[in-house]
Amino acid sequence: MGPKIKFAKDQIIDAAFEIAKIEGIDNITMRKIADKLGSSVAPIYVNFKNLDELMEAVIVRIISVSQQLLSEESQGDPFLDMGRASLRFAMEYSVLFRDLVLKDNHYMKDYDEKMLPELIKEMQKDPELEGFAVDELKTILLKMRVFQLGLSVMAANGLFSKDCKIQDLMDILSSAANDVILSARLSKSKFK
Amino acid sequence: MGPKIKFAKDQIIDAAFEIAKIEGIDNITMRKIADKLGSSVAPIYVNFKNLDELMEAVIVRIISVSQQLLSEESQGDPFLDMGRASLRFAMEYSVLFRDLVLKDNHYMKDYDEKMLPELIKEMQKDPELEGFAVDELKTILLKMRVFQLGLSVMAANGLFSKDCKIQDLMDILSSAANDVILSARLSKSKFK
DNA sequence: TATGTTATATAACAAACGTTATATAACATA
DNA sequence: TATGTTATATAACGTTTGTTATATAACATA
Question: Of B141, B175, B179, whose CA–CA distance to A177 is shortest?
């Protein structure tokens, strides 16, 4: 074998992630990573074939961070938990959020489509959503996802005042959820 | 004076806009513009101090295009007109929409803050919104802006199927508007 | 016609980029 | 100890970028 490894794959991804967190994914360069590591570019090319391969790894890391946030939120309501996680990610990693949401990368699309049926299942367990058909649940879910996305983008863009806490945004989110559900409930009973 | 002007300021901005429309603002380069004009970079530097100055002009052009779309929508309801304009811009200029919305440029913020009081005024004229206090109108407006932004981002990201027309998205938007207004109306009458 | 101005073309510069060739040195193994 | 392997550093290559120095040519004016 050769000499001891001073710069492992994970450290390299860490450094690249730190750069992306502040400057955005597109501003990752080999030399910046090397500078942050205190090395040359050589260790990077030993661990990754080229920049594209490393970027793939960075995106995987970003997604895992966002899922880590999601796993930390578990106050019972899967809806609001997801909303809180999304808002946290948008606020704590605003640059990455915009990089991820505003480019159409297949990761997000795949992830979304995988989550949808699962969310519908969760909604069917929710007593507050009892009596709704699957199609109605889908409509409610769509509206909520739209609202959550808009709120997250606004948060990431710093459109809310500085002392605006996540809880304040969560209040808006759940208020909108109530609006949607209440309205759906009413238009349902109207035809009964 | 000198020789005839072959490449005027507007043509240069046009060329840069075309590039930005397809490749994004960050992919504008002096040489690409020159190629599109069929010139060298010299005419560009005669008309603009540097790339930054030209980019400012391009952003102004982009905003004017989006306002052009808004002025074309005037079916009566300022709310839905704005929503339709936003959706059209997001769909017809998806790259530019993401460039504009996902960077926090002061233009959008200024524009937003200028429009808000005007929108509130418009809402006060709306018979459907009669009886609401200004604070309640502000809450309704915020929710609608959030929803409209989320829907526009989704549209720009191509998250809806190809045969999804603007009218389909408008239906969702106005349905959400009804949800919000109806719910606000109900929680108002509850305490009367 | 001669002169000054300026729109344009060309070519070069420096900087930053991804990538790679080369050298060095550390480690495992024979 | 000698050898092969490999992690790392250095430096260079080619490309692309913004910018600029220089030359040319067209036009207005004296």
Answer: B179
The residue of chain B nearest to residue A99, with distances taken between CA atoms, is: B102
Q: Which amino acid is at B102?
A: L
| Contact across the interface for B146 and A145, Cβ inside 8 Å | no
User: Once rounded to an integer, what is the mean pLDDT over residues B65-79?
Assistant: 91
Which residue segment(s) compose the domain that B145 sits in? 75-192
Neighbours of A92 (CB within 10 A): 16
Residue ending a domain, choose from B37, B72, B107: B72
Task: Test A147 with B176 for CB contact under 8 angstroms.
Answer: yes
Query: In this structure, is the CB of residue B22 within 7 Å of any atom belonging to strand D?
Result: no
Dig out the tokens for A134 from the structure.
Answer: 């699957």
| End-to-end Cα, chain A, rounded Å | 77
Give this prediction's pTM.
0.94
The domain boundary, picked from B13, B44, B72, lies at B72
Same domain, A28 and A48: yes
Query: How many independent structural domains does chain B possess?
Result: 2
Q: Which residues of B touch A185 (CB under 8 A)?
A: none
Higher pLDDT, A104 or B128: B128
Q: Which of B56, B139, B145, B151 is nearest to B105 (CA)?
A: B56
User: Do A18 and A36 touch, CB atoms closer than 8 A?
Assistant: yes
Cβ-nearest to A150 among B109, B146, B183? B146
